[in-house]
Structure formats: structure tokens, C-alpha cells
Amino acid sequence: MLRAKNQALIQMQDIPTAVNALQFYANVQPSIRGRNVYVQFSSHQELTTMDQNTQGRGDEPNRILLVTIHHMLYPITVDVLHQVFSPHGFVEKIVTFQKSAGFQALIQYQSRQNAVVARTALQGRNIYDGCCQLDIQFSNLDELQVNYNNERSRDFTNPNLPTEQKGRSSQPGYGEAGGMYGLQAAGRGVAFPQMANAAAIATAFGGGLPPGISGTNERCTVLVSNLNPDRIDEDKLFNLFSIYGNIVRIKLLRNKPDHALIQMGDGFQAELAVHFLKGALIFGKQLEVNFSKHPNITQGAETHEYVNSNLNRFNRNAAKNYRYCCSPTKMIHLSTLPLEITEEEIVSHLEEHGTILNTKLFEMNGKKQALVMFETEEQATEALVCKHATSLAGSIIRISFSQLQSI
């Protein structure tokens, strides 16, 4: 496993089986945990224990530890790491950085024995309940070089180091400085950095994450294929994908009419969309939803902009919206209804999209809401994408999926 590069080397028994594997995946797109992966021949003829990443060497003891943090729902700083690792020995230096494997840190102890004890005690443990899991290897570095004392790097043997010059990376030699929740594609202006949602995510999921969600994805753009080009448009895609996060922009691909690119607010929201919408049925087609190789969508004449849309759901009540994320269901929930609305008017507004089995109109906190159950998930999905943010009796209504099984 080349953790720092998000790559792996696999040695087959012989060359013919390696050729067979490569030929098979030339025609079939392999994916792991919803992420497309790519297979090619390596220049290596044989794997040895030296084929480790440049900063981690596995189990050979060293006084410097390489720490990768998985499921990082809360920001991790030098002070947090020092609090976790200092009980096991004197920590001389800490450097944190961002790599493709996720948020990482190098921690230098005074002695190799301290590092061994810390790794034994902390490997696989969570810093916080249900998240921020520690994956610890021994580094192959002999000495950390720390230039600045700040929240991303610290030399505890030299408290007189300056803080970094503003706007510059703390430790460019170790990787891109910053946390996993920083702005992605800095300078491109992604409007919804994940840091702003960290607390909401933790609140929504009780400090954990839904099954199948890693929380470590950084790619904001998803590729949707097998669309019905005669029925779909950008606004309908917005209505569906905005259930899982804020939408920055959408582009229908002119050369592939059944394909679209959708740029979400951050990597976590994109992961929710891929997880919950893969295989969803809409307009007679089963959607394919995967992460795109494009980090973002370039603004242009063929893109529709939603970055400033007041219909983005996660600008307000983010925790509530995260909590309601689910795959399409037969039941939809309508809110912001006019107080004098009737069930007959709701049915009349939605019945063109399928057979309505049941409805329930109710009031909560002085506001009218409704539940509508369709015969199939596809009918409910069509009603949502076509009628969310439409006018009903003078009010712009909001529609989302309900996880209730019956009315």
C-alpha cells in the first residue's frame, strides 16, 4: 500500500495472470467504496518490503511516527496531537500536512522506545468518540525540520521559532499545509469549505458517520451518467442533488447527452450524493453516480451556476439536512406550505408523476407540512425533481425524501 499516494502495488503469481487482470479491467470500470480506480502495469518486477511510501516504513521502529487520521470530523491541530501523544514520552517536534491519503502528521519523540510505546498504545484508537481514528506507522525520516511554531507545526525544543509568514505554507517539504477541511482548490473559490460543516456533521450523526460513508473524500465533483436526456435538465439535477449538499455548478455534457457533471460544496457532500444516489431510478433510467476525475467544473457558457442560489439547503439548518440524507424513498415530505392548503390541492399538484397511495397534512410549529406516499421510489423521485421549489397556492414549496415507512 502506497498510502501517501493513494495507490497500491499488487504482485500476481505470474505474467499471464497479470495480463488477464489488466485486460479484464480495460473493459470494466473497477471501483472501491464508490471511488473509481485505475489499473496499469508497474515498472517493478518484484515487491519487497522497501516498496513503502516515502515517509512511512511500516513496522521498523523509529523515533518518528507517521500518523494518518481517518474519519476526521473535527479539526486536528498540533496542540490536540501533543495532548494525545505526550503521555507516552517527550515529544520533540510535530509537523502536520495534507496528502492524498488524508490529514497526516509526523511526530518526533526523544527516543525510539517512546515512539514504540505510543504506537502500541494508540494504533487504531479514536481521538474523539466515533471519529478521528489514528493509523500509525514508523517513519523512515531521521530528523524533522521545523521552521515555524504555529497550529500546524511545532518544535517543543525551540520555543523561540517565529510563526509563519502570512499566506505561506508552514512546512512545504512535507506536503501541503493545512487540514482536510480547508478550501479545496485554493484560489478557485469553492464556496462551502467543509470546516464550516464539521460541527453540523458531528451533530447530525452523533459523532459517527452513516454506514458506507468514509468522511475522507476530498473530491467535490461527481459524474452522473445514464440520464434520460429528453426529460432531465440542470434544475432537475439541482433539485435531486441539493438534498445531499450545496451545489456550486452543473454542466450537461454536449457530446454525451446522458452525462452531467455536478460540483458539490465539499468532498463530504459529494460522497453523500454518490453513496445515496448510485442506482437511483429517475425518468425510466437507473443512474450511475461516481466521483469525477475533474476536481471542479470550469465556469463557462455551458455551465449553470448555483453557488449563490438561495435554494441551496445547507446554508441554513445544516445539521438537520445532513440527518435527513437517505436514498430515494416512496414517501416525500413537503414544507413551507400555505396555511390554507388542502390535501386535494397537494394531490392535484403531484398526481401527474405517479400513483399516490396516501397523504397526510399536519401542522408543526405553526407551519403547514405534508407527507405524500407514492407507489414507487421512482415516482416519488420524479415528483421531487419536478416540483421542488415550485409555486403551490402562492408559496414556494420545499420537498425532500422522508424515511418514514407509512403514514
From TrEMBL:
GO molecular function term, any single one: RNA binding
Keywords noted in UniProt: Phosphoprotein, Repeat, RNA-binding
The keyword Zinc belongs to this UniProt entry's keyword annotation: no
GO biological process: mRNA processing
Biased segments, Polar residues type: 152-172
Domain of life: Eukaryota
Keyword Transmembrane helix tagged: no
Residues of the RRM domain: 220-294, 330-404
InterPro entries hit by this protein: HnRNP-L/PTB, Nucleotide-bd_a/b_plait_sf, PTBP1-like_RRM2, PTBPH3_RRM2, PTBPH3_RRM3, RBD_domain_sf, RRM_dom
Gene Ontology CC, one term: nucleus
Positions of region (Disordered): 152-174
PROSITE patterns in UniProt: RRM
Name recorded for this polypeptide: RRM domain-containing protein
The organism of origin for this protein: Carya illinoinensis (Pecan)
Organism classification: Eukaryota, Viridiplantae, Streptophyta, Embryophyta, Tracheophyta
